[in-house]
Structure formats: structure tokens, C-alpha cells
Amino acid sequence: CGSSGDASDTSLSETCSSSESDDDLTNLIKQKTLLDEGDLESSKQEMEMLSHTKEESALEIKKEEKAQKKKFVYKSSRDMTPLQEQINAITVIPNVCYCLYFLLARKWMSTEIIERVRESFSSVDETSFLWIQNMMECDPATITPPLAVLAVAIGFILHTPFSFMYHWMCAHHLPPGVARIEHWSGRLDKSFIHVMSTCISYATSGSWKYFLINALLNADCIYRQFLPE
After folding, report:
1. CA 17, CA 40: separation in Å to the nearest integer?
2. Rounded (10°) angle between helices 82-91 and 147-172
3. How far, in Å, CA of 199 to CA of 155, rounded?
4. Do the beta carbons of residue 167 and residue 91 sit within 8 Å?
5. In this structure, are residues 211 and 198 in contact, taking their beta carbons and an 8 Å threshold?
6. How far apart are alpha carbons 5 and 224 in whole angstroms?
7. What is the DSSP string of 24-91?
8. Looking only at Cα atoms, what is the longest distance across the chain?
9. What is the DSSP letter of 144?
10. Which of 32, 66, 168, 196 could form a disulfide with 89 if both were Cys (CB 3.0 to 4.6 A apart)?
């Protein structure tokens, strides 16, 4: 009788243990299911965020491509044809020719103007003004041109050969785009534009201080023309 009681207790305990194990297994399955659902939900969110990021990136790329196309179209419309570049090169020659003619023929001041100035300043002490003294004492053919006139002529004469060379290179050798910007002829052309501008700053102002300020600024610009970028 005792043995049968022990057997029944054993079977009952086994039944209880098996039911507890089933409950634990069920709980584990539920937890795993919840975790899987959570992982799936987080994976979905990550996929949505990734998809959204890709869409934004694609839109940004499209915008950049459109902007680049607009820049290319704008720049292409501004690129000159070989004929236009040849005209650019040829039309700088008359400038330097006229400057040389103006100086050598002494056209910067006619004899009539000099005589009028002499009459106007006849009562003025010419020793106070060197240029008046020069006109009063010297023959018009021997009077040196003013520095302002010389500054303009020097600026144009120095710039002309480099300008002609660059535009002629663009017409026959250099393709449109970066090649023209980085080529040494283009850098020299722009550099001597700064030299000419410095000369003209004195010609239009007559001030050595203004000339010096422009010389420093344009010297820095010339230096930057020869930097890698």
C-alpha cells in the first residue's frame, strides 16, 4: 500500500514537472516570437530609413546633375569659336600700334596747345612747376611725355603679346574648358592684365600712393594665377 502511494506521488510529481516544463517552453516560445517580431519591426524600420536615405541621396544626385548640366550649358554658350578667338587676337594689335604712334609722333600734346599754355602761364613763376619750365624752355619736339601717358602706353605694350598668344592658342590648339584656364599662356595673359591695370591706376589718378596700393593688390593676384588651383 505504501509502495503504491509512493508510485502515485512519483507519477504526480512527474506530471507536475512535465506541465511546468511545457509552460516554460511555451513562455520561451512566446518570448522568442516577441523578440522575432521586435527584430522584424526594427528591421522594417531600418529598411524604411535606408530606403528613405537612398531616395534622398538619389534626389540630391539628380539635383547636382541638373545643376552641373546647367553650368555646362551656360559655360558652353560662353565658349568662343575659333573665329572669335582669332578676332580677339587680331584686335589687340591696333592698340599697341596706336600707343607707339601716339608716343613717337608726339601726339600727346600738339604745338598749338603748348603755345597756348605758354601764353597762359607767361605771368607764372615757371620754376615752381617743372613741367611748365620744360614747356617754356624746350622745343615741343624734345618734351618728354607725361608719366601718365607713358604708363598707359607701357601697360598696353606689355600686355599685347601675351594676349595675342593666348587667344591664338585658344583658336588653334587649346580645347574649351579647364585646359584654357590652366595653360601657361592663359596665366600669363591674365597676369599682364593685372600689370596693365596697375599702370592705368597711375595714369587715371596721378597718385603714387594709389599706384602702390594697386601694385600690391595686383602682385598678389599675379601670384595666385600660378597656384595649382
Report:
1. 34
2. 160
3. 5
4. no
5. yes
6. 106
7. HHHHHHHHHHHHHHHHHHHHHHHHHHHHHHHHHHHHHHHHHHHHHHHHHHHHHHHSPPHHHHHHHHHH
8. 160
9. P
10. 168
CB 166 within 8 A of CB 186: yes
Residue whose C-alpha cell is 578667338: 85
Q: Which three cell numbers stand for residue 12?
A: 504526480
Q: Give the model confidence (pLDDT) of 205-224 as tens digits.
A: 989 999 999 999 999 999 99
**One-letter identity of residue 81:** T
Distance, in Å, from the CA atom of 225 to the CA atom of 222, rounded to the nearest integer, reads 5
* 97-139 per-position pLDDT tens digit: 999 998 888 787 777 766 776 676 666 555 555 555 555 555 5
The residue count of the chain comes to 229
Q: Which amino acid is residue 143, in one-letter code?
A: I
How far is residue 95's CA from residue 207's CA, in Å, rounded to a whole number?
Answer: 25
How far is CA 104 from its chain centroid?
41
Q: What is the C-alpha separation between 222 and 188, in angstroms, rounded? A: 9
How does pLDDT run across 14-25, given as a tens digit for each residue?
A: 455 555 555 655
CA 114, chain centre distance (Å): 49
Q: Enter the pTM of the model.
A: 0.57
Question: Cβ(138)–Cβ(111) under 8 Å?
Answer: no
Reduced to 3 states, what is the DSSP secondary structure of residue 207?
coil
- 47, three cell numbers: 529598411
Per the structure block, which three cell numbers stand in for 127?
620754376
**Range 153-169 average pLDDT:** 95
Give me the helix-helix angle, 93-104 and 82-91, nearest 10°.
Answer: 10
